[in-house]
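Example (one chain per record):
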Amino acid sequence: MMFKIRIHFLGLIFLFGSCTSSSTKSVESKSDSLYIKEGDSLALATFDTLRISLQRAIAKNGFDGAVSYCNVQALSLTNVYKSDVVSIERVSTQFRNHGNAPDSLEREVLKRLAAVQKSELVRISENEVHYFKPIIIQPMCLACHGDPQKDIQPAVLQTISKLYPDDKAIGYKEGDLRGAWHIIFRNNSQPTTTL
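Predicted structure:
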């Protein structure tokens, strides 16, 4: 409930900000910082949901069972914090699931993130704010996304090949850019919750 109120509050701030006639850098910077803060919060919450679920699947069925779990659950777990005014996606040029394939905007931002590896905020129109946060390969990620010769166990590689015959998401090293969280904030002039 509190999360929805925060999202609607951000929507009202965005609506109010886009209706004013003066657009100074300090106002834009303050608005940007609100989206960066909320984007970081949503990315972290979504990552934690995925991470905890994945750790449970690994503990229960090993890494090859976790690949099967991700095949079925990862996209729906990414949408846990989705709302009428916010959508959350994971995108990568080296995707495993076709649902994570980037569109043209996402490809361009992923190129920039690969060069600088920091958060980026992109405004597209009055009605949407696109926030991107890099996803960086951590040591645990290598068991499914690392070097197939040294990091990925044969049973895991077999499961990946079976479930994802067009897999592009291997060969990473720790610290590599895996992809990005793409969070879209939409302008919502009719909040569904009362403040």
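Caption: The mean pLDDT is 80.
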